Amino acid sequence: xxxxxxxxxxxxxxxxxxxxxxxxxxxxxxxxxxxxxxxxxxxxxxxxxxxxxxxxxxxxxxxxxxxxxxxxxxxxxxxxxxxxxxxxxxxxxxxxxxxxxxxxxxxxxxxxxxxxxxxxxxxxxxxxxxxxxxxxxxxxxxxxxxxxxxxxxxxxxxxxxxxxxxxxxxxxxxxxxxxxxxxxxxxxxxxxxxxxxxxxxxxxxxxxxxxxxxxxxxxxxxxxxxxxxxxxxxxxxxxxxxxxxxxxxxxxxxxxxxxxxxxxxxxxxxxxxxxxxxxxxxxxxxxxxxxxxxxxxxxxxxxxxxxxxxxxxxxxxxxxxxxxxxxxxxxxxxxxxxxxxxxxxxxxxxxxxxxxxxxxxxxxxxxxxxxxxxxxxxxxxxxxxxxxxxxxxxxxxxxxxxxxxxxxxxxxxxxxxxxxxxxxxxxxxxxxxxxxxxxxxxxxxxxxxxxxxxxxxxxxxxxxxxxxxxxxxxxxxxxxxxxxxxxxxxxxxxxxxxxxxx
Amino acid sequence: xxxxxxxxxxxxxxxxxxxxxxxxxxxxxxxxxxxxxxxxxxxxxxxxxxxxxxxxxxxxxxxxxxxxxxxxxxxxxxxxxxxxxxxxxxxxxxxxxxxxxxxxxxxxxxxxxxxxxxxxxxxxxxxxxxxxxxxxxxxxxxxxxxxxxxxxxxxxxxxxxxxxxxxxxxxxxxxxxxxxxxxxxxxxxxxxxxxxxxxxxxxxxxxxxxxxxxxxxxxxxxxxxxxxxxxxxxxxxxxxxxxxxxxxxxxxxxxxxxxxxxxxxxxxxxxxxxxxxxxxxxxxxxxxxxxxxxx
Lengths: 502, 295
Fold this sequence. Notes:
The complex is a heterodimer of chains A (502) and B (295). In chain A, strand 7, helix 16 and strand 8 form a beta-alpha-beta unit. Chain A is of the alpha/beta class and 502 residues long. Chain A has 20 helices and 16 strands. In chain A, strands 3-2-1-4-16 form a five-stranded parallel β-sheet. Chain A has a five-stranded parallel β-sheet with strand order 6-14-7-8-9. In chain A, helix 4 packs antiparallel against helix 10, helix 6 runs antiparallel to helix 7 and helix 16 runs parallel beside helix 17. Chain B has 295 residues and is an alpha/beta fold. Chain B starts with a strand and ends in a 22-residue tail after the last helix. Chains A and B meet through strand 5, helix 15 and helix 18 of A and helix 1, helix 2, strand 7, strand 14 and helix 8 of B.
């Protein structure tokens, strides 16, 4: 199934025909120019049936087949100025990797991506491409629709999956041991990137992860139906093959401090990638009622603790009939779609602005709508209502209209007086982002943070402490996997430089 | 992987376990806790307080009551077997200083987490008065260990089967009305007990520290499940606590939140409670009892 109602096989068959046709034209010596390329229909992502998938956590987007991938790659105009690369936070050589797909050399394609992006199977799935590489794509601009840009993310996913599924993954080459040791604190996207890049130079790397499993937000936050955990595990296994040690159940700041790692345990440098922290709440009455959760908690129970499998998992999750999710980002979409999969009959996204301003990835919003999530725009709760047992029974909701653009450039919502109404629901999931995690900072003397508690770093990701670098959400606030990886990459460069000089 | 080295049954369903955890044993301080998960794939993460630790042997001692699925499973583990994951030490250590006289009140298995705190308070030069409370004689734990620390020790039971027949608040009030009154009270036990201890000391303006044990997943400040209301503000037990000013904690809300998964638990595990003489609607007893979830 897909948004077009066609199955993966049907889409693949159609692509095969079109690709053969294109091949015949090429063989006949016909020139395939920009006009012809732009006429190739954008390849639709096959997905699970929206009704069926509401009952399973299996991945929604099924991925292109070979013909779809090759045909989509033919849509690329190989622009000399590579506007797509400018849109990518880690500057993946997009034109080059797509050219390799056109040639049918998928291994070469994925190797090109891995020159700058260690986790293509993850980024192909979770990057907000329509705001990055695909936003600047010439094809999309020419067709006056960003949704018709070359599907760079899907192609990235295709070659990365192809490599893994065909057993072609080759761990990066590791240089001879230097005898230098680097501590990586937090095993999320930033930490994994740093670990790989630093290990490649022959330095000994130990990752310290607080949870019982590595992967950070990729295992506790992003649901299985969007990013299968086996993929994250495969990426982590590569690190292990490179000789990186991963210590789980190790909370730096408590189990050991940063200072102890550097001064007593013999680490020459440390990278802090501890990720998001305390969830933000609305600050309205009723938030301590039973049935109100941060999206962090709800998703961690469902993802990392596997509460979706009530038979086997020991961790319970609150089963509600009607759920309200507050927020408009990816995390809100994830929580809403997870609630549906956990058996909720009606799930609403309550968002203060409109779809235009919603920060969530376009594909996630589309999938949520397909699955039957109800979007209530220009609404925000004034308070959460409970019964005499302290359980959620509803919210008092305020209606809004859009006013002037605010500092972020988004039109800010203005409350409509007297528009309050009662919205019945038995659970409220708050997905409004996070404050910085205070723990490591509190236990690390001399580490300078900004007003919001985010670690302050220079261009090379170095913190106020010598030999200590930081990146990812603890520096950026709530951001994306790819931005965290970009920071990790810069930090690793700086650490490698530091260690080469010392 | 943390090997179980010793296991003792302290009372009807209260177990003491000593497990290998060298890094935690080295880093932990009085008042801190750990998160335990029996198995990585399907286990639940539950907070348990550290009752004791031996840095040279690299071990920590946990005390827990088998009240739900996870704690029952933990109780079934034998010496030589392993607990797959233990994270810690978590939470802020107790602020220990010489203040004069400290009254330490422990209810049920709350006596276990109180033990290292009382020990630290004594070592800091305080006069330490300890009140141990339990429903009945069989549920009194750590009496000998506490006696070794205490300048004065009082045991009370609800039914009078051992020690004085009273609630812990009675001797606590008596100490507070004495002259000189104590400089500090520390109460650890079931939330309802801590609530009434705080009410008992309030008229005497004796500062009262309580140690909260709430629903928790990561224990590192990420999930927000452990939030409590203190002085009208939302606080997170894992990073702001576990100790708070007892006079400012909203215990009623905390108790409501502890029952969040009651329906799920009762449905899935009502058999666990049968025949144990436990009131399944009683909130988990004491700071050393895991809170929330199926336990």
